[in-house]
Amino acid sequence: MRPPLPRLHAVTDERIARRADLDDAARQLAEVGGANLALHARGRALTGFDHYDLAVHLSNVPSALFVNDRLDIALALNATGVQLGVGSLPVSAARHLRPAWWIGKSVHDLAEADTAKAEGADYLLVGPVYATPTHPDRAPLGLEPLRAIARLGLPMIAIGGVTAARAHEVKAAGAHGVAAIRALWDAEDPAAAARQMLEELQ
After folding, report:
1. Number of H helices and number of E strands within the chain?
2. Least confident of 65-69, 134-138, 166-170, 179-183
3. Is cis: bond before 3, omega within 30 of 0?
4. HSE-up of 45 (CA within 13 Å, CB side)?
5. Is the pLDDT of residue 167 over 90?
6. How far is 155 from 121, CA to CA, in rounded Å?
7. Where are the alpha helices (DSSP H) in the chain?
8. What backbone phi and psi angles, to 5 degrees, belong to 159?
9. Per-residue pLDDT at 170
10. 89 burial type by CB count under 10 A (0-12 exposed, 13-18 middle, 19+ buried)
């Protein structure tokens, strides 16, 4: 049986994947988040080996492992879920490989969200909700489009400039949870940042 979809998603990037304190930061996040935390092994510019190595490190802490794009790595490490983007294999391919996975699709507007639902995605990663240096070329969605996407009925994880101070308002707009890179991994105290975000999502 599939576990509940975590509410807090700590997403990595190439920079975080190469940090010397990756294991320590992941452990701090996991101590607070537990089953309500998903650690995402993500890094579009990583080699296959480096992506696998990142996922191995994240799998060593007691939280759900989600792997972005690389279904082979997700299979090898018995991940809880996969996160698919525009250039990834289709949802149906992921479903065929492991029906029990949480299969998410990254979307940026209502039309993409509607298509992802039709494809059979289990949840949507929606963003950027706010301005973020991770995607400086994308205009932030804001909360109204988030509310429209929430009405599709799929669990929605909001990403893009989401901080603990903003977690409550995206939840009020219909989000099941939030995802973050800098707000968690770059926090002076990752455990405290995770705790505050989870409290705002109650």
Report:
1. 10, 8
2. 134-138
3. no
4. 6
5. yes
6. 10
7. 14-17, 22-33, 48-59, 71-76, 91-97, 110-119, 143-150, 164-172, 182-185, 190-200
8. -135, 160
9. 97
10. middle
Q: Name the pLDDT band for 184 (thresholds 50, 70, 90).
A: very high
Would you tell me which CATH number, out of the four given (3.30.420.40, 3.20.20.70, 3.40.430.10, 3.40.50.2300), belongs to the domain 8-200?
3.20.20.70
Token look-up 């999502």 returns: 201
CA distance 82 to 84: 6
Domain boundaries, the chain: 8-200
Residue 79 or 136, more confident: 79
**Global pTM?**
0.96
